[in-house]
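Table S2 (continued). Query chain:
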Amino acid sequence: GTTAVRFAATRAGEGKVIIIDLNGKTITVDNNSTKAVFTLGANDALIISGEGTIEGGKLVEGGTVVVTGSAEVEDTVADVKTGIEALKYILANGGEFTMTENLEATDVLEASATKRVVINGNNKTISTSANRIVRITNSNANVTINDVNFVSSAVMVYPSDVRGVAIDPNLSNIALTLNNCTIDFTDETTNDWTYTVNIAGNGTGHKVTVNGGTYEGANVINAHGAKNTIVVKNATLTSLYPNSDVYYGACIWVLQNQESSVYAEGNTFNGNNALAFNLGTGTALEEKNNTDNTKYVAAKVGGAYYYNIAEAINAAEDGETVKVLHS
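Corresponding output:
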C-alpha cells in the first residue's frame, strides 16, 4: 500500500550508515517545503534496499544516498547513486547489492571494503573494458559474488596484463566466494593469456571458494603465497593457453604455496595444452568425482605436436628428432 510519512528533523552521526528496506511498500514524504526533513553528515550514508517506492517531497540532503536493489526513488526525494555507481559504493564500503539490470563499467571495480560485501547478480551481466574486472585491495576483505556473468573486452598489450577477479599482492586473510558465476574474455589473445581468478604474490591465509559456474583463461585459478585454501566444486574450468611447448597452462595453478590446500569435487577440467592441476611444493590436494578432459603435449616432431610420445616416434621420418616436452 501507500504510506504517508512525516520524518522528524534529525541528524545522523558522522560515519553512520542507515538502511531502509522498503519491503514492497510505497513511502510518500509529506513535506511541502524545499528543506529536507533528514540531513546526513558528510560521511553518512542512507542505503535504500528492497522493492518499493519513495515519492513526494525532499527526504534527505547531504551524505550519500544509495539504491542497492530495485527500489524507485523520485528525483524530488534525493540525489541517489544507482546502477554501477551504487555497486562501486558497496564495494568500497560494504553491504549487499542486488542487480536488476545489466551494468557496464569502464574502470576497475575496486573492492576496498573490510566489511562484508555481497553482490547478487540474478544472472545479469557486468561488462567492462578495464584490465581487472574486480580487484580486492585490502586485507581481511570478505566478498561473495552470486550469479553474475562477467564479460571483459580488455585487450592485453605487453607489458600490461589482464585479470578477472583479482586479489592484490601482499594481502592476508581474504575470503572470496564465487557462486554460479561466469567470466569470459572476448579478446582472443587476452583469453589465452589471462588469469581468471588470481591471488597475486605473497598472499597469505586467503580462502577462495568457487561453487559452480564457467571460467576460462590461461591459468583459470592462479594462486601465489602461503597457507591459502582453494575450494572448487561443480564448476567448469577451461585453460586456453595456446603454446604447446611451454609448461604453463592449468585449470588450477598453485605456485609454491607452502602449507596451502586445494579441494576439488565434481568439476569439469578442459584444455588442449593444459593440466587440471599444477601444484607447487607444499600444497595438499584432495579431489574426487572430477572429469579431466585436459591434454598436455608430450612431444614435438618438426612443427607437429603429439599428446603421446609413441605417436611422435611413429610419425618421425628418417633422421628427424623427437623432442620430448613432457613425460
